[in-house]
Amino acid sequence: MEHLLSRRAAGASSSVIRDLLRLVDRPGVLSLAGGLPAPEGFPVDRIRLAAERALAGGGRYGVTALQYGPTEGDDELRDLAAARLGAPAHDVLITTGSQQGLDLVARALVDPGDVVVVEAPSYLGALQALRACEPVFAEVGTDECGLRTDVLEDLLVAGLRPKLLYTVPNFQNPSGATLPLERRRHLAALADRFGFLIVEDDPYGVLRFRGEHVASIRTFSDRVVTLGTASKLLAPGLRVAWLAAPEWLFGSLVRLKQAADLHTSSLAQRIAADVLADHDFLAAHVRRVGAIYRERCDALAAAVVDTVDVVVPDGGMFLWGRVCGDAIDTTELLPRAVELGVAFVPGAAFHVGDGGHESVRLSFSTLTPAELAEAASRLAAAIDLTRRETVVPGSLLSAGHLGS
Ligand SMILES: Cc1ncc(COP(=O)(O)O)c(C=O)c1O
Questions:
Q1: Does residue 106 have its Cβ closer than 6 Å to ligand 1?
Q2: Local structure of 101: helix, strand or coil
Q3: pLDDT of 365-397, one tens digit each?
């Protein structure tokens, strides 16, 4: 009966990461593959209190937490999100995770054949949401500071005309890179000059554990949609996120959301608003979570120092880099690594074009420092084994390279 599927559904590929997570979720495998926040960081008690308050019949909100609500979202939560985003509350839409925000923005803007610029590497979930709208992707390379805006400018000057550009400016997934202020300014100026929209997806800015905050891209231009989420700040199971969009786009996003789910869970919104309004608690919570991530980031970075060439980030959940030494295809490395009890995501998964084959994404968020050290030593062993098995005697070429 598959012929009944729409072209869109038939063409929708599952996320490589999701497929992989199913494979690696077996006893004994230390996973550096997932993108899950540290569960020890979930503010369970504070969320329980918020839920009790939201459900207290005689309380401030009575039963509204269980009633239908406006598509745009809970007013108090919109105000709180507006303050976080640096946008007026009337530009803020509450979404069911920022994944929904990405889907809405893609569907509001992208017709088949429209040019969409993405970073190489890029967040898979955004590629999935965009791909459903059948764009023509243009990849722009990155370095340790994120998007090469100079390369983008050359492409634009040469005639590239994108409708939108998608970027994760803080502690990017997968690369961990943070776009410096000057590049943000440059990118905003390019959007103004060439008339495209920037989609600034910022789930990880809240997970800064070192260094200075960098102003958002929306500070420099009106042609920006900025997305934030409670997923990394509080807990992803709430499915509460927010975006700020320019007025000309806002109504379309609201109508698309109405068709998708009427509104984000009233109860989850009330819980999120209650916790986000508790500024003292939130500041202490962010410090506590940051300390967990910093310790894990540094532990993994130290443990892979001879194995993977990483730039240590100031926040987020990921280390990214090329495997040290002779070229190795990390997609071929993965099965060997899983056999030895460690999983990661091969770099090729994050590219729409043919790139990233020698890179890996290593998530440090869910393992303890001791587990991270063990995972790193298994990874090193898997690399050694793979190299020994695939080197053709008398040649420097690996079997992977001969075979493709
Ligand atoms: C860059 C990026 N954007 C968006 C999301 C989705 O987040 P949410 O849980 O808010 O849907 C993720 C999740 O990992 C992500 O890494």
A1: no
A2: helix
A3: 999 999 999 999 999 999 999 988 875 544 444
Quote the CA–CA distance of 37 and 290 in Å, as a whole number.
Answer: 11
Q: What is the DSSP letter of 15?
A: P
Neighbours of 352 (CB within 10 A): 18
Q: How far is residue 264's CA from residue 266's CA, in Å, rounded to a whole number?
A: 6
Q: What is the mean pLDDT of residues 284-302?
A: 98
Quote the ligand 1 centre to 399 CA distance (angstroms): 36
Q: What is the Å distance from ligand 1's center to 189 Cα? A: 26
- Which tokens is 54 given? 């939201």
CA–centroid distance, 383 to ligand 1, in Å, is 30
Tell whether ligand 1 has an atom less than 6 A from the beta carbon of residue 171: no
- Radius of gyration, CA atoms only, the chain: 22
CA of residue 12 relative to chain centroid, distance: 19
Ligand 1 center from residue 6 Cα (angstroms): 26
Write the single-letter amino acid at 63. Answer: V
First to last CA, the chain: 34
Are the C-beta atoms of residues 89 and 82 closer than 8 Å to each other? yes
Q: Is the CB of 125 under 6 A from ligand 1?
A: yes
Q: What is the pTM of this model?
A: 0.93
- What is the amino acid identity at position 115? V
pLDDT over 70 (residue 19): no
Cis peptide before 236 (omega within 30 of 0): no
- Does the C-beta of 366 come closer than 6 Å to ligand 1? no
Hey, which bits of 337-382 come out as E strands?
342-343, 345-346, 359-363
Exposure string (b/e) for 132-165, b if CB count within 10 Å is 16 or more? bbebebbbbebeeebbbbeebbebbeeebebebb
DSSP 3-state of 315: strand
Residue 279 CA to ligand 1 centre (angstroms): 23
Instruction: Indicate which atom in ligand 1 lies nearest the CA of residue 229.
Output: 10
